[in-house]
Amino acid sequence: MANITNAVNTYTTRIADLPGTEVVFGVGAERRLPYLLEKNHVTSLLFVYSGTYVYDLGIRDAVLNAAKELGIKVIENGDVQVNPRLELVHRLIEEARANDVDFVIAAGGGSAFDTGKAVALGKNYDGDVWDFYAEHRGREPEHQVLGVGTISTLPGTSSEVSFASVITKGHLKGGASPIAIKPAFTIINPEYSRTVPYRYLAAATVDMIVHNLEKYFTPNAPLALVDQLEENIFRAEYEAAERFAADPGSLQARADLHWLSAYVNPQLRSLDATGPQYTIHEGVIHIIEHSLSGVFDIVHGEGNAAVLIALVRYEASRHPEKFAKLAVRVFGADPYLHTEEENALLLADKLEELIVGKLHVPIRLSEQGVTREGLDEVLDQLGNLNAYPIGHYTQLSRDDVKALLDSAF
Questions:
Q1: pLDDT exceeds cutoff 80 at 210
Q2: Which pLDDT band holds residue 222 (cuts at 50, 70, 90)?
Q3: Count of structural domains within the chain
Q4: What is the radius of gyration, based on Cα positions, of the chain?
């Protein structure tokens, strides 16, 4: 594992290998771009991003200069938005075909990465790429998928090293997860996250925590070691989030978040393969949030924050076991003086203390622009995409999800 402190303090880079993804981490990591592009035999490149940060941080210059050095043609687009849209993906696929693109670099956070992966998936596909986000979900493509590289400016989603992509079509969010779109490399310079508005960094930090906890809320995990790893990673994430909240400008604090996002969390997710039961990991928080943000276009991490705490409180009286166990293991709750329900509620309190009290992420849906009038559409989408009941650790009916969301207003 790379030494984060050394990478930050000496302004050097360290390289670590993840399955299928080469991670270049540290201040100055972008200097490895020519090597990475040459290694991946790139001849025509699509560069996608959003906003002006690629100019402000010198990312655009780094990409264009590396491409010029190697004689690589570059097509660029900066129209990516939060909750990325299928319409842009379609347009970029056509541009990629017209320019014989053979590689995609996406710079930013999850939205840019999702867009880049979707283009990589769709460029050589005869049908509509949306097929892989709807009826072909989970299916590996039979056609050649373009290589993908990412330049991370926002820790949290782990999308910079994962094979997940989420795209929005109208009010419907769809997810694709073929291994073929896992990035070939990612560049992570923790200096880059300094220009990201605090709101989005804080929300992404919550998203990272949710990704980990969804693995913890898994039924019948075959190894006690799995729970212990997740408990310790949650502890590390909680403490890193506290340090970041106390000093958002700290390079070290942001480096810790980047490393947790890019290395620790995805490595833990590889444990999904330890047995047939554990492959059915709990993803109900993301499932609900995707329908919420599909309808209301809210910030993903903020939506996850609302659903996470509402879920723990709602389930405390029904299925408190895992929530109580986490409270005991991480926060020292007493399993003898308090009931499992009481300890589950303590966990909700500790999460709220971090998310609202320190990170200042809103957990009331009314603060995020969600209205009760639109909940029926959210509930309909959930049922159409996943079929009720949803969830594995606890199974939620339509009425359960409605009650859970009502409690979050």
A1: yes
A2: low
A3: 2
A4: 21
What is the Cα–Cα distance from 129 to 141, expressed in whole angstroms? 10
Q: Give 258-291 pLDDT, tens digit per residue.
A: 989 886 555 454 444 344 333 345 589 999 999 9
For range 212-235, the mean pLDDT: 79
Domain CATH for 91: 3.40.50.1970
Beta-bridge mates of residue 108: 152
Residues 262 and 25 sit within 8 Å (Cβ to Cβ): yes
Reading the block at residue 309, the tokens are: 């705490």
Confidence (pTM): 0.85
Q: Are residues 186 and 218 in the same domain?
A: no
Amino acid at 203: A
Judge contact between 26 and 7, C-beta under 8 A. Answer: yes
Task: Give tens-digit pLDDT for 5-41.
Answer: 333 433 334 444 445 789 999 999 999 999 999 999 9
User: Looking at per-residue confidence, does 137 or 24 come out higher?
Assistant: 24
In this structure, what token pair is assigned to residue 319?
């299925």
Provide the greatest CA pair distance for the chain. 69
Phi, psi of 74 (to 5 degrees): -125, 130
Q: Which residue has the tokens 């290998």?
A: 17
129 and 211 share a domain? Answer: no
State residue 46 phi and psi, 5-degree precision. Answer: -100, 125
Q: If we measure between CA atoms, which residue out of 46, 239, 58 comes closest to residue 146? A: 46
